Protein backbone atom coordinates (compact mmCIF):
# COMPACT_ATOMS: atom_id res chain seq x y z
CA UNK A 1 0.00 0.00 0.00
CA UNK A 2 2.83 2.39 0.85
CA UNK A 3 4.36 1.85 -2.61
CA UNK A 4 1.04 2.79 -4.27
CA UNK A 5 0.91 6.07 -2.32
CA UNK A 6 4.52 6.84 -3.25
CA UNK A 7 3.76 6.28 -6.93
CA UNK A 8 0.67 8.50 -6.74
CA UNK A 9 2.72 11.22 -5.04
CA UNK A 10 5.43 10.99 -7.70
CA UNK A 11 2.85 11.09 -10.47
CA UNK A 12 1.22 14.17 -8.93
CA UNK A 13 4.55 15.97 -8.59
CA UNK A 14 5.50 14.99 -12.14
CA UNK A 15 2.21 16.41 -13.44
CA UNK A 16 2.80 19.64 -11.51
CA UNK A 17 6.28 19.90 -12.98
CA UNK A 18 5.06 19.30 -16.54
CA UNK A 19 2.06 21.62 -16.16
CA UNK A 20 4.14 24.37 -14.62
CA UNK A 21 6.68 23.99 -17.43
CA UNK A 22 3.97 24.66 -20.00
CA UNK A 23 2.72 27.68 -18.03
CA UNK A 24 6.32 28.95 -17.63
CA UNK A 25 6.75 28.84 -21.41
CA UNK A 26 3.65 30.93 -22.10
CA UNK A 27 4.11 33.42 -19.26
CA UNK A 28 7.79 33.82 -20.17
CA UNK A 29 6.81 34.57 -23.76
CA UNK A 30 4.34 37.22 -22.59
CA UNK A 31 6.91 38.62 -20.15
CA UNK A 32 9.61 38.89 -22.85
CA UNK A 33 7.30 40.47 -25.40
CA UNK A 34 5.86 43.04 -23.01
CA UNK A 35 9.09 43.88 -21.15
CA UNK A 36 11.55 43.83 -24.02
CA UNK A 37 9.70 44.19 -27.32
CA UNK A 38 6.66 46.35 -26.57
CA UNK A 39 8.60 48.88 -24.48
CA UNK A 40 10.50 51.13 -26.93
CA UNK A 41 13.92 50.68 -25.29
CA UNK A 42 13.01 48.06 -22.71
CA UNK A 43 12.41 48.72 -19.05
CA UNK A 44 15.88 49.91 -18.17
CA UNK A 45 15.14 52.59 -15.58
CA UNK A 46 13.54 52.14 -12.17
CA UNK A 47 10.93 54.78 -13.00
CA UNK A 48 9.99 52.84 -16.14
CA UNK A 49 9.45 49.68 -14.11
CA UNK A 50 7.35 51.53 -11.50
CA UNK A 51 5.19 53.06 -14.25
CA UNK A 52 4.87 49.66 -15.93
CA UNK A 53 3.59 48.14 -12.67
CA UNK A 54 0.80 50.74 -12.52
CA UNK A 55 -1.13 48.57 -14.97
CA UNK A 56 -3.14 46.23 -12.67
CA UNK A 57 -2.56 43.19 -14.88
CA UNK A 58 1.23 43.42 -14.62
CA UNK A 59 1.65 42.71 -10.88
CA UNK A 60 -0.76 39.77 -11.10
CA UNK A 61 1.11 38.36 -14.10
CA UNK A 62 4.48 38.82 -12.38
CA UNK A 63 3.34 37.05 -9.19
CA UNK A 64 1.90 34.16 -11.21
CA UNK A 65 5.18 33.97 -13.13
CA UNK A 66 7.09 33.94 -9.83
CA UNK A 67 4.97 31.16 -8.32
CA UNK A 68 5.12 28.98 -11.42
CA UNK A 69 8.87 29.39 -11.93
CA UNK A 70 9.70 28.65 -8.30
CA UNK A 71 7.37 25.63 -8.24
CA UNK A 72 8.79 24.28 -11.48
CA UNK A 73 12.41 24.81 -10.42
CA UNK A 74 12.00 23.24 -6.99
CA UNK A 75 10.01 20.28 -8.34
CA UNK A 76 12.77 19.65 -10.88
CA UNK A 77 15.49 19.96 -8.23
CA UNK A 78 13.57 17.57 -5.99
CA UNK A 79 13.29 15.07 -8.85
CA UNK A 80 17.05 15.16 -9.34
CA UNK A 81 17.64 14.56 -5.64
CA UNK A 82 15.09 11.74 -5.48
CA UNK A 83 16.91 9.96 -8.32
CA UNK A 84 19.73 9.43 -5.83
CA UNK A 85 17.48 7.01 -3.85
CA UNK A 86 18.03 8.82 -0.58
CA UNK A 87 16.69 7.39 2.68
CA UNK A 88 13.04 8.19 3.41
CA UNK A 89 13.89 10.32 6.45
CA UNK A 90 16.28 12.47 4.39
CA UNK A 91 13.67 12.79 1.64
CA UNK A 92 11.19 14.19 4.17
CA UNK A 93 13.78 16.73 5.35
CA UNK A 94 14.50 17.73 1.76
CA UNK A 95 10.78 18.10 1.05
CA UNK A 96 10.35 20.31 4.11
CA UNK A 97 13.40 22.41 3.22
CA UNK A 98 12.22 22.88 -0.37
CA UNK A 99 8.76 23.92 0.86
CA UNK A 100 10.33 26.48 3.19
CA UNK A 101 12.66 27.84 0.48
CA UNK A 102 9.83 27.98 -2.06
CA UNK A 103 7.44 29.69 0.32
CA UNK A 104 10.10 32.19 1.37
CA UNK A 105 10.89 32.97 -2.27
CA UNK A 106 7.24 33.47 -3.17
CA UNK A 107 6.56 35.64 -0.11
CA UNK A 108 9.66 37.77 -0.74
CA UNK A 109 8.93 38.16 -4.46
CA UNK A 110 5.30 39.04 -3.81
CA UNK A 111 6.41 41.59 -1.21
CA UNK A 112 8.73 43.19 -3.79
CA UNK A 113 5.86 43.44 -6.28
CA UNK A 114 3.65 45.07 -3.63
CA UNK A 115 6.42 47.58 -2.79
CA UNK A 116 6.89 48.51 -6.46
CA UNK A 117 3.13 48.88 -6.96
CA UNK A 118 2.82 51.07 -3.85
CA UNK A 119 5.59 53.37 -5.11
CA UNK A 120 3.78 53.77 -8.42
CA UNK A 121 0.58 54.99 -6.76
CA UNK A 122 2.24 58.23 -5.67
CA UNK A 123 3.19 59.21 -9.22
Q: Could you name the key traits of this structure?
A:
3 helical TM bundles of succinate and fumarate reductases, 123 residues, mainly alpha, 4 helices
Please characterize this protein's 3D structure.
The protein is mainly alpha-helical and about 120 residues long. Helices cover about 85% and strands about 0% of the residues. The protein has a single domain, classed as 3 helical TM bundles of succinate and fumarate reductases (Up-down Bundle). The chain is built from 4 helices and no strands. Helix 1 (about 1-40) crosses helix 3 (about 55-80) and helix 3 (about 55-80) packs antiparallel against helix 4. It is elongated, with a radius of gyration of 18 Å. The model has no long low-confidence stretch (mean pLDDT about 85).
Helix content: over 70%
Radius of gyration over alpha carbons?
A: 18 Å
Number of strands: 0
Q: How would you characterize the largest beta sheet?
A: none
Query: pLDDT under 50 segments (min length 5)?
Result: none
CATH domain class name: Mainly Alpha
**Mean pLDDT value:** 84
- Report the portion of residues in β strands: under 5%
Tally of alpha and pi helices: 4
- Please trace the helix and strand order, writing H or E for each element: HHHH
Structural class: mainly alpha
User: What's the CATH superfamily, by name?
Assistant: Fumarate reductase/succinate dehydrogenase, transmembrane subunit
Amino acid sequence: MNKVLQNQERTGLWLIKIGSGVVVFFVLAIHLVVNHLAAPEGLLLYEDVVNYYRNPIVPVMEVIFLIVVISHALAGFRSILMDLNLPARLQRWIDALLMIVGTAGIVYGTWLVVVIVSRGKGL
